[in-house]
Amino acid sequence: MTHLDGAAVAPQERRRLGQLVASVAGAPVSIGCVLLIGILAAVFGGFGDGSRVPLGATARSFPEHWWVLLSSAFWARNPTSAVIGILLLLGVGVPVERRIGSRRFAVAAAAGHVVGVAAAMGFVAVAAGVMGDWVGQIGGNAFAGPSALVCAVLMASTASMTTLWRRRIRLGVFALLLLLALYNGGFADLVRLFAATVGALVGPVLSGRRPVTPHPVSSRHERRVLIALLVAVTAIGPVVAGLAPHAVGPLSVLRFLLTNLQPVDPETLQTLCAYPALARDCAAAGLQLRAGAGGTFMAVLPSFLLLLFADGLRRGRRFAWAGTLLIQAALSAMAVATIVAVLQPSAPDTAAAESMTAVDAAGYGHPFALVLPLLLPLLLAVLLLTRRKLFTVRAPRGTYRRLAVFVVGLAAVLALTYVAAASAMAQDFNPQPGLAGILADIPDRFLPLGYMFDLTPAFVPLSPGAVAVYEGVGIVFWAVTGAALLRTFLRPAHNRHSLDEDRARAIIKTQSGGTLSWMTTWPGNRYWFTSDGHSFVAYRVIGGVALTLGPPVGPRADQEKTFDEFSVHATANGWSPCFYSVPQNLKDHATARGWAGVPVAQETILDLDQVTFKGKKFQDIRTAMNNAAKAGVQAQWTTYKAAPRGVQAQIQEISEEWVADKKIPEMGFTLGSLDELDDPEVRCLVAIDKDKRVHAVTSWLPVYSDGVVVGWTLDVIRRRSTAMRASAEFLIASAAVTLRDEGYAFISLSGAPLAPPPPSDGGTGPGPSPNAMDRFLEGLGSTLEPIYGFRSLLGFKSKFQPRYVPLYMVYPDPAALPTIGSAVTRAYLPEVGFEQGLSLARTLLQSVVSRVRRSLRSRP
To answer: Which of 9, 385, 476, 568 is deepest in the core (most CB within 10 A)?
Structure first.
């Protein structure tokens, strides 16, 4: 039995050994760098200063010691640095080299390290006349190790990554390196920053394309992630400034303003406080006690909270947005108060004077050095204010009311515990406090008041037990509060808005709606309910236009009545009503009342009882399904929330790549995105192969009738650029077959705006005699086709031989059509920035010019 077990284990060990050898063989440059580190240490007599030949780089090494431009990459100042460098090469260098190839890796590593060191030397030389004090302090610092080349190759490798991870890695790495350069400010920090910049520039060149500026287009979900990442990285800055003992960067002045304290052990404190003559020293030592575990935690409390809120920002939570904004405003206010205090004439023994002395000793000019800490929170506050529309997700009703009750209760319990413990251990404090003194000290246990107002503590703990009580209250309170806060961000985001949305969802599920009804639950809509509460209209007011999303939802017999009542309601509020994407019957009702109407989309419907995909006209569909079977690609149903983390990450990658390719912001209104896909009521169908690689994803919205789901509407349809061909056709066909087998009546492939059905379809379409508005929309659709591809999308959907159903826009006043057109545009594109607007205009102009040229060439 033992022999059999050993025989079974041996192949596994040999397989693992083979995989390890393959990894090493696939990264010869990285392994060579590891060996060079050991060889240089052996040849030149160990680490650090054991060699008479300078191998580490300083700002003054060139040109006398020119070889340090390269040798510094393989030199370690001590065994710890050598181990860290080797781990970086093995943990980052080996995977990156296997990804981009050894030749590209070697070029990026050499260029990044050499140019990075040279650029840092040049920066120090140039900046000496402008920031001489800072440059003077870092001029003698040495740099050694492979960290710069690792930064360079990592950034170079992002050129071959998907849009999602390229943006995240670049933002995270650059933000971290820039933070270290500004706060820590050492020569090594500058080298890494310049090396990473070189890697980002040469990466596209090595991949066979020119470097381009990062494209501004990203999805709403990804913009939230990037802002959260930025907030998280910048939250670490004050911690670096406060805890780094030799920080000399331009922002390192923060350590003099917030955490310029050194820990004091209880024995020293007890000795100082045992003699009345040393009362002053006792008080000073008591202040320094705050640099212990509890004091340090309270000093970095804003950073701790910002890291918590960063997770909420990533999820789009409005509470996290408000909390982050409040903290940034508070930090700015504290910086202003500190600046005013420091610049005021102060007695020699005040904390302000000591801070100013420390700032002078560091070599910073007064106004410039003290204003710098104010700029970062202000910039972040401005960024959050300008991006507030990204953070619209609200927690379920009562979430934060319950959180407030819990936090207050926790504070009360801890306060009582502190009062009881401190009273019982009063002899372990100096001076010995009474009950009144202990009660007055409670606020300082929960808030960093000593730092904010430079307050001297009324008493200080002497024994370890007293220190634990004194410091533990704040740690326990904020740790538990932080965990509770994170739980609120993890609660399901849906069914979370106002009572109106809950009522709307209930009506959708119990009454009858259309194929667009579930879209009314998306963020951005308001709700108007009939007096009996059985029907509602979802709308948004843009530029004085009350633009609805689809027809009224409720009993079918009341639809026309609801239409009339909402029109009266909108007019009474001074809005111009406009019903968008309504069916033929409601268009006829509006026409009978003197309203105008134009077709705006063609909805494509598949009646599932007729789906067989047989015959020549479905040849493309059958080919797609056969190719998927041969490639081992399967269609799997799930929801975004229930999908494995790996699948969720791939869906995000596919979505971000799709958005970036469009060169304009994600559209909204009747077009969903990743945010709308993240709904437990929405089903997802993914094309996934045997290696768990997701090729494409579609999402399906429920269509209710009399309280029962009778069909599904296609919303998101996105595929990977390197996916299996016809993966989208495969998913839609698979959805039609499985949903037919589940007993549903139809699926809607959604509408294609400004795209008439093909002439040969035999379905219902616009009238045979188009008017001037129809011709205008026809021209507009042709002009917008290069950007949005609506007509190409309709052509794609025609492969399934659907039934075409026209959707109309109806409005009472033709004179308001320009305003209505603007409202529709802003509903679909609410976030077009200046640069994106220029890109959009340029594409439109090119399209118009191309159409004119084709028209001129077609003339006899």
So the answer is: 476
> d(Cα 656, Cα 669) in Å, to the nearest integer?
19
CB-CB contact of 463 with 428 (8 Å): yes
Q: Which of 224, 299, 307 is nearest to 482 (CA)?
A: 307
Strands 545-549 and 576-582: parallel
The angle at the Cα of 445, spanning 441 to 450, to the nearest 5 degrees, equals 80
CA distance 192 to 177: 7
pLDDT tens-digit map of 453-502: 555 667 778 788 888 888 888 889 999 999 999 988 877 655 444 678 88
Residue 462: its pLDDT value, please?
77
- pLDDT tens column, 799-817: 888 898 888 889 998 777 7
Which stretches within 672-754 are classed as H helix?
674-677, 727-741
The three-class DSSP label of residue 151 is helix
Residue 437 and residue 458: Cα distance in Å, rounded?
A: 7
Q: Residue 114 has which token pair? A: 């050499």
Angle between the N-to-C axes of helices 147-157 and 163-183, in degrees from 0 to 180, rounded to the nearest 10: 150
**Pairing label, strands 596-607, 746-753:** antiparallel
Beta strands in 141-290 (DSSP E): 142-143
On average, the pLDDT of the chain sits at 78
Task: Give dist(CA 704, CA 518) in Å, integer.
Answer: 9
Rounded-to-integer distance, Cα 29 and Cα 140, Å: 31
Furthest CA-CA distance within the chain: 109
The angle, 0 to 180 degrees and rounded to 10, between the axes of the packed helices 790-797 and 772-788 is: 90
Query: What letter would DSSP give residue 48?
Result: G
DSSP code string of 631-644: HT-EEEEE-TTTS-
- Backbone angles phi and psi of 599, in degrees to 5: -70, 135
Strands 694-705 and 460-461: unpaired
Give the alpha-carbon dihedral of 842, 846, 848, 850, to 10 degrees.
180
Helix-helix angle 79-88:28-43, to 10 degrees: 170
Rounded to a whole number of angstroms, the distance between the first and last alpha carbons of the chain is 92
Q: How far apart are CA 324 and CA 379, in angstroms?
A: 12
Question: How far lies 33's CA from each of 54, 70, 74, 110, in Å?
Answer: 19, 12, 7, 11
Q: At what angle do helices 147-157 and 187-206 cross, to 10 degrees?
A: 30
Distance CA(305)–CA(319), nearest Å, equals 13
Closest-CA residue to 121 (of 210, 56, 31): 56
Other Cβ atoms closer than 10 A to 34: 22
Chain-centroid distance, C-alpha 441: 40
- For Cα atoms 618, 624, 626, give the angle at the middle one, nearest 5 degrees: 100
CB neighbours of 682 closer than 8 A, spacing ≥ 6? 518, 639, 640, 676, 699, 700, 701, 702, 715
CB atoms within 10 A of CB 574: 9
Please tell me whether the peptide bond between 63 and the residue prior to it is cis, using omega within 30 degrees of 0: yes
Residue 585, token pair as written in the block: 């019957």
What backbone torsions phi and psi does residue 825 show, to the nearest 5 degrees? -60, -45
> Which helix H or strand E contains 378, and what residues bound it?
helix 366-386
Cα 707 from Cα 686, distance rounded (Å): 27
Which tens digits make up the pLDDT trace of 202-220?
998 887 765 555 555 567 7
User: Which structure tokens are listed for 518?
Assistant: 């579930």
Question: Measuring CA to CA, which residue among 392, 414, 232 is closest to residue 305?
Answer: 232
Residue 679 Rama label (left phi>0; alpha psi -120 to 50; beta): beta
What is the SS3 assignment for 11? helix
Could you say which DSSP state residue 290 is in?
A: T
Neighbours of 359 (CB within 10 A): 18
d(CA 151, CA 149): 5
Q: Determine what percent of the chain falls in helix, strand and coil, rounding each to the nearest 5.
A: 60, 10, 25
Half-sphere exposure at residue 458, Cβ-oriented, CA atoms within 13 angstroms: 16
